[in-house]
Amino acid sequence: MHSIIVAGVLLAGLPVLLHLIMKQEPKRLPFPAFRFLKVKQKTNQRKMRLRHFLLLLLRVVLIALFAATLYQPVVESQSFLNVLGDQPVTAVFVVDTSPSMGYAANDKTRLDEARTRALELLDDLPAGSRVAVLDTVDPVGTWEQSVSDARRKLEAFKEPRGGGPPVTAALGAAYRLLQAAEKDADAADPSPKLVAIFSDRTANSWNPERGDDLKKARDGVTKPPVSHLYVDVGVDQPADVAIADVAIRPQVVPQNLPVTVDVTVAATGPDVPEAVVKCRLDGATTPPEKRNVRLPAGTPQPAQFTFRDLKPGLHQLEVTLETPDRLLFNNTRFATFRVGEARKILTIADDPDDAIYWQLAHQTKGEFACDVKKPDDVGDLGPYEAVVLLSVSDPSRGIAGGPSLWARLADYTARGGKVIVIPGGPEQVTPAAYDPANAEPGAVLLGKLVKVVETEKLFAPLADPKAPKPPTHRFQVGVPWAIDDAALRHPFLAPFRDWQLRGNVDFLKKKRLAWKFWEVEAPSTSVIVYYDADEPADRRPALLEKSIKGGGKVLLLTTRMDTPWEDKPERKWHDYWETSENSWYVVFPNLLVRYLCGSAADANFNHLTGQAVGVPVPKGGGKARKLILEGPGVTGRDGTVDLADKQAEFKLPPTRTLTAGNFVLRTEDKSWREGFSLNAPGDESNLSKVPAEAIADVCGPKSIIPAEKNLKLRDVIEASTDHPIDLTPWLLIGVLLLFTFEGVFANRFYRARPTPG
Question: 624: buried, middle or exposed (CB in 10 Å: 19+, 13-18, 0-12)?
């Protein structure tokens, strides 16, 4: 860079050298009137001297300007904005109204501080300025009618409102407003543009992944570029204790099981010797349960509450910190759950003893109540959500002089019923009874049972069959499921995706093996999962499914699931029932039934503020209905819900879910009630600050200003503008113009003139 400057200086001296070389001497004219010529000579010398000087100056300026162009100079745009004066400004104010803005310091919340600073800057706007006010709850705003309207909107920000998107969403909306304003503005007199952000700069308030998109939107505002102001109203060393999470899993709990509430408590700042956590159920007047929790800074700690013998129905609880601190929103969290009777399934088995483990698996989980009956004892199938055919020898025979099991199951599935078929071994079942070719129309058969595959015969035998089998041989004579990416896309295997991430699930830690299974011919049946083999073509179905017109569904498991009698090795087809590890024998039967019937674990009564909430409602019965909504912040007409006859769900938009708390939706006579809870996002309790570089990348290196700094509009524009103006194009134009002028001037100056006389 310095060499360019030196070269420019040297080049600037070139015209001087040329001037000395090309300097013209005055012509001597032999006139008689010598005195007159003397006067003429002096006049001519003065003119020549002036012309030489002007030409020299022009050439020096030309060379210097050319050298400056090579330097590619830029100038900060605030130099041009110093003349702002009383010129109106087009300004967008973005106010962070997220829950973390409720942090109190110096007797003011961060939102109070943000509102005060925003009003100060608003008062400094020149008359005629155009203003828009956005916040994180409503990031898509419009231009206010006047500065007074903008003031009223800012003054309305008195309490944080939970759950909105980060500041970056509102910033993108601000750029879109400015782009729209550009189209309406007078091109000859564009007003300065300002985006002012008022936030605590917490990590949750800024999405760094939006940086490139925001810069693109920013650069789309061109005349003039946007000035930025980011007023940081946060505190540098916050101290806070928070109820970070309250979890009840599942949220529909069977009546016979206890309800476990898992609470996570976290501290920001110094260690907290002890925090007292209270849990109050259903607004009971009895004293709440308490837990003492020691909180090392930065390390969340658990607390657990257990409730037993709760009545069926809706229940709501409130978990609070006994001692409030500077940030109130995270001192309380709410939760809703339901205690319900276990859903009924029916297991049909020739021998009820074959269903002992199968029944125990469902009783252990508690979500489903499993009745076990012999084929001749089966009555109405309607009350059952699923029917399991377990080791039934001949489902094709008539029962008590009536239709066969196949026929009854066909009618059941045609009405939306769900069926699981699990054949027994060849000594238990009649394969012909499971052959679709022999079945009556409509039978829920998925394929023909061809033969029993014994995996030990698929591998090379041991050198010494009498020798003890090495541990590795167990895998050699058994096959696990082939759970690849294609298999994981099936809804039945959806839980496996989460298990793979955790890596601590029994079925994945120690792959469960099957060493006997039925080979099934089922060309028209879809396969959920195969048994593994080296070649995909050699893989055989482990679990098949078929959808039935009318909403029913049938599963076929190709290995047996009756009780693993230890004294009958021929009945041990797999190690699914082993309990030495985690209880896969409990998980697997529930996975099958949950896939067919849907899981109560999928029910969700707990949502985040700022999210849309849907509440299932009872059918209308041919008439419109009126429901009552109760909860914090629900007043007046908001508490009345009018439903159409066929409306199956009441939906609350995000604008009506901004207040945390427990809510109930009920009929006027209280014969039906449903509920839900709203909580602010847990990451709002993360008070660590987003790196300044992330904000500066979009808003400019000088845009972040501490809240305590005095804000004046002129200072803001001068300090925050970071869009330099490139002077190179203008200098090139100047070089071309001067070069043209120098040529014309030199030609006229050096043009040969006729000699007088």
Answer: exposed
